[in-house]
Amino acid sequence: MMRSIHYTTQGRLDKDLTLDKIGQVLSEKEGLMWVHLDCPDEQELLAVLRDTFHFHPLSIEDCQSTGYQTPKVDDFDEYLFIVVHALQPGPQFDRLETNELNCFIGENYLVTSSLAPEMSPVNKVWNRLHLDERLIRRGTDFICHAILDEMVDEYMPLLDDLEEEIEELEDAVLTDPQLETLQRILALKHNILALRRVISPQREVMNRLSRDDFPQIGHQNQIYFRDIYDHLVRIQDLSDTIRDIVSSALDTYLSATSNRLNQVMKALTIVSTIFLPLTFLAGVYGMNFRHMPELEWQIGYPLVWCVFILLALGMAWFFRKRGWF
Amino acid sequence: MMRSIHYTTQGRLDKDLTLDKIGQVLSEKEGLMWVHLDCPDEQELLAVLRDTFHFHPLSIEDCQSTGYQTPKVDDFDEYLFIVVHALQPGPQFDRLETNELNCFIGENYLVTSSLAPEMSPVNKVWNRLHLDERLIRRGTDFICHAILDEMVDEYMPLLDDLEEEIEELEDAVLTDPQLETLQRILALKHNILALRRVISPQREVMNRLSRDDFPQIGHQNQIYFRDIYDHLVRIQDLSDTIRDIVSSALDTYLSATSNRLNQVMKALTIVSTIFLPLTFLAGVYGMNFRHMPELEWQIGYPLVWCVFILLALGMAWFFRKRGWF
Amino acid sequence: MMRSIHYTTQGRLDKDLTLDKIGQVLSEKEGLMWVHLDCPDEQELLAVLRDTFHFHPLSIEDCQSTGYQTPKVDDFDEYLFIVVHALQPGPQFDRLETNELNCFIGENYLVTSSLAPEMSPVNKVWNRLHLDERLIRRGTDFICHAILDEMVDEYMPLLDDLEEEIEELEDAVLTDPQLETLQRILALKHNILALRRVISPQREVMNRLSRDDFPQIGHQNQIYFRDIYDHLVRIQDLSDTIRDIVSSALDTYLSATSNRLNQVMKALTIVSTIFLPLTFLAGVYGMNFRHMPELEWQIGYPLVWCVFILLALGMAWFFRKRGWF
Amino acid sequence: MMRSIHYTTQGRLDKDLTLDKIGQVLSEKEGLMWVHLDCPDEQELLAVLRDTFHFHPLSIEDCQSTGYQTPKVDDFDEYLFIVVHALQPGPQFDRLETNELNCFIGENYLVTSSLAPEMSPVNKVWNRLHLDERLIRRGTDFICHAILDEMVDEYMPLLDDLEEEIEELEDAVLTDPQLETLQRILALKHNILALRRVISPQREVMNRLSRDDFPQIGHQNQIYFRDIYDHLVRIQDLSDTIRDIVSSALDTYLSATSNRLNQVMKALTIVSTIFLPLTFLAGVYGMNFRHMPELEWQIGYPLVWCVFILLALGMAWFFRKRGWF
Amino acid sequence: MMRSIHYTTQGRLDKDLTLDKIGQVLSEKEGLMWVHLDCPDEQELLAVLRDTFHFHPLSIEDCQSTGYQTPKVDDFDEYLFIVVHALQPGPQFDRLETNELNCFIGENYLVTSSLAPEMSPVNKVWNRLHLDERLIRRGTDFICHAILDEMVDEYMPLLDDLEEEIEELEDAVLTDPQLETLQRILALKHNILALRRVISPQREVMNRLSRDDFPQIGHQNQIYFRDIYDHLVRIQDLSDTIRDIVSSALDTYLSATSNRLNQVMKALTIVSTIFLPLTFLAGVYGMNFRHMPELEWQIGYPLVWCVFILLALGMAWFFRKRGWF
Known about the structure:
Five copies of one chain form a homopentamer. By secondary structure, the first copy, chain A, is of the alpha+beta class.
């Protein structure tokens, strides 16, 4: 599905342009134009990107590819080609998923294309555009910034969720280390790795857009890309911190399990050390030797109970003294 | 709450200027002026920053935001926008908290703003200003340096506390590895991570202020920012050391627990290895076979006791030889 | 075996040139020529590379060497010498193997040489060349790009296999940590290390080909090498992620085994703690003291069973309360 | 205590100059002068550094501070301010301690100052100066080099000690992992961290002194600072190696303890597995059932002993086959 | 012992020059000369290096020093001073040892010096020189390259040995984790660390020799130093891989030991869980209560055996269901 909007030099807003009209705007360089391809099929993609805009085959290939593309900026003199990623929780196991957005910024046009349907950052900016015409007047680079800004703003709550979960898991690891906790820690680790894979090159994209001298990016708008860059630095910072905590949570898991094992073994050792000697003694007086004088004593039985109790108390006192319970 | 001070070219100190007066000083570039916004509400913030000083919307947004902002310097030709953080122990679990301070340095003014009430570095410099007029004569950049210097001076005791605690924990880990020790180590790790997140970009801020050529920072004052930079290098150094020790404390915990487990298991094994054979032997002479010649012997019972004792002593000697106790 | 193709300036395609013909084309710089040495013996190699093309002895030595050569670009004014590696699963233990391909790019010729027989990227391009003549018209640098592109395209499925296997192993580690799982994790680690050893310098090769100013690489074709570079960045990214997961899989293995040990020890402790006291008690009433009043009681035996059952239930309740089962 | 020496242009050596004389030498830039402040009190420090040499307040502050200062070079046009550290074993726990030395190098003077009394590198150079006049003729920068060289030469034996100790500990960890070994490993780790904290910035100081163009450092003397730099690279190298070994010693400790635990548990399991079934069997024939035919057999008792022995031997054979002992 | 060779401009080869002759060749800059000092005593060293060639005292000091010197190139306008290291297995514990070689390259001379006797790379080149006169005609820089090339060629088999051993150890760790395996892993780690300490700066030396513009190194010979550089990159690559495997071997050791412990504990738990209840039951019917109806039953004894067997089978079935054996 293709959506398009054209802001003419007369200040008129035209919508849903035909391909011919787009081609005409393009050749006359008249006004500002934004074309968005929402989940396009191959035919539509080629008709727009190849036949109308004449973009480079490699860029079009990147738009078609369903595999993961590293975020990047390619500078084709005439236009900039930008690949960025939105993040959203996937359908299962809380795994984060990335949705690729491809942007072409030319002198007076912005073309965005995504194989994911109805990307919320694009929709939000699309709607804001209809509410507030001033947005488009600031140029196609500013619209592009607005989309990227929305996209990066959606990262933060995801990271906050991750941070909250890892702090929860850290407590769980200390108080009750279960395999399920381990599983959740690993899932978190996968998410953090996925995040880092996206954020780090995306940050580099924003850095280049805010620093390098591209004719498509107005100088007064570069500070806005710098602002996104700062956001991404913050996000990467936080994700580094979370990653550190995830790592130490794995170590802690081991320490906590080991500690627990110590408790268990102490319990076993205490019980064994108390009852094995007692059982031995009981066994002794269960022997059938003919000549065992103690057996004949009147006070033999109470006496042996005294020995039992004294032995047990002695052991208990010994363990307590060593701080075992 | 807004506080302001104006040092006129006639050497007069005016205080608590009205917004109109501030605007007038600003347009006439007369004298030196410091305005501090202490925990301002949104209305006050906008009135001062947007309507009086006409700062860039992105900077004002940063001042309004309650979330964590990475320390940075933004250069808006007319003025520098600096974000830095003070550190202080939080209300619970000894978690360190960061308080953001935003500074705008212009040609003849300094505007500081913080959402945290009554920041001590600001207050200290404010008071020194009233005691010693020479401070303001050295320029708004020097006042800014004074505030940052106070702020960084407050880091060191916090780090010393952390170092002291980790050395204490290291001992605790060796002599008595408890889950609570693990918990405290993890809390320390969180604090160190929080510290590093603040210090490393803050250092970069100081580096830029002491190296780059900003018209708002006098050349003879740059060495003072360099001095703060050196302090931060030292602090980061120390925090790296502490972090290394925290990491090895986790490893040590595991080693110490494992060692302790070894002790426990040795105890269990010694007791079992001594008493299981004895109990077996006692069980043998507790059997009811009709024809067991030993049972009839007069010296059977004393003999078996001898065997018990010899066996037990033999085992004990064996374990001692292997260095088990 | 030598294969060669010559695209004359008249647009004719000559094949299987003699060495004399090759020498003639070379000296007249007429048309475009590709010579491929498929698994050549030393004599053939020297005849072509040394006696016909007069390449530098060090490059020829690299072509002859059967050991692993680090991917690189050597710039000999007249020509570029490129060493790259294809990857394929080895015959045993799923170990990846690398096949070296050496390329010489001159002004109007491309010489490729490999000691591995029938390398698929070379064959694919060779066949495409016969189907689509336009390929050779774009220059020898473009043919070289086509081969490298095919080569790098073959990496991705291998990495996907690795990623799939590590995720499988991660599950296996959690649910059933066996030594065999450990063995497979280590094999995976070896593969990832082999990959990284190849990819990282190969990426650098592509970077230089797309950035540096080599007369043999046309400016309009550099973006194609940049595209391969982007692919390699993506692959290295993914391999970093896999490596991180492999590392944490080893940690998880330890955690899972430790957890399992805990379960085993709890079982042992529960059984021991329940039956050791009971056995002791049974032993007590198996003693042969003459005067043991309880033995005479009518309800002695049922009573002792009640004690047995109560004791066992009490222990079970205690362990359940502590969450041991 | 202040020591001073003045080498006049007439080739005379004057000692113990008054402050006035120092001021005069300074203003006339006559000859070469070295002033050393050994453990000065605040008054003396200010009299010399502030009132006579007029150094920058920040440098003087660094000389006064008793806390740890990161090694650095500060370039104040007129003079260089250098902070370096000597190392020596501290009074307890074999902890290394650092002693700060501050050097000011001007055109014709060297001022050194240390809060640690009688620093041996300074004393050695002081004495050499009296034995060999040529030393001072080579300039104040060469004297400074001589002091730093002596200082760095004192590092090496400390590192050799550390290396020797860690190799000893590594053996101890393998053959007999005790908590005390762990304690010593941790102490070593602290020392290595302290070393690295000092060496790395100190190396940077030497790098700058040997590379940068300071008017106070003669070009022909820079190679001597380069020599110290090489020494420090070697020392840092060695300290990296030691640190790696310390890290793996911690891992080894865990592995060795774990191995030992395995031995202990095997012993326990062997004993239990042999004696528990035997004890059970003895218990069976200790039962008081009226109708137990075996009990009546003449060969019952010898037979059961055969069973005991065969069972025990069978178990032992089984464990030996599995390589348990 | 000193060996020397002089290739005159007339194409004559003179050998074993006197010091006077060397001095003459040096001052007349006539022909090419190589002097090698094999394991020289101090007197000889000073006579040649200081009194004949007049090298810088710092370089001569490096030649005299028996301690480890970091590989480096020092540029003294007149000549280059190069420190490199050969590797060879030491006399004990398979520890690798380094032998230092010092080279001075001047305009028309090469001086090599080593405290290790009869270094094989030097000897090999010395012999080749007598067989093939062309070698010396290519210049002293080429002879130096030849020596370094031989030296680096001797690294590879050592690394292959290390790689073979670590793969062997990796298997040993999985199938039979013994303390001796741990010991061998640690010895390997020491060797790898020693290797890395030598290779990394040595690579830097080659990089400088092949890139920088030294008058002593002919432009056409720089590619040969580049070739050694490529070799060293490959060696460092491989040593990185081995180091990674050594690290994970330590982790694997722990995992395998832990796994083995699990097996041992399962065996113990199975035996205990089966026999403790049985022993208890046998103990019950060994009690001497007067009124125990079961004892009187005719089928009491067979019945209790049934219970014994059913209980044991039940336990075995339970453990098998949980996959314990």
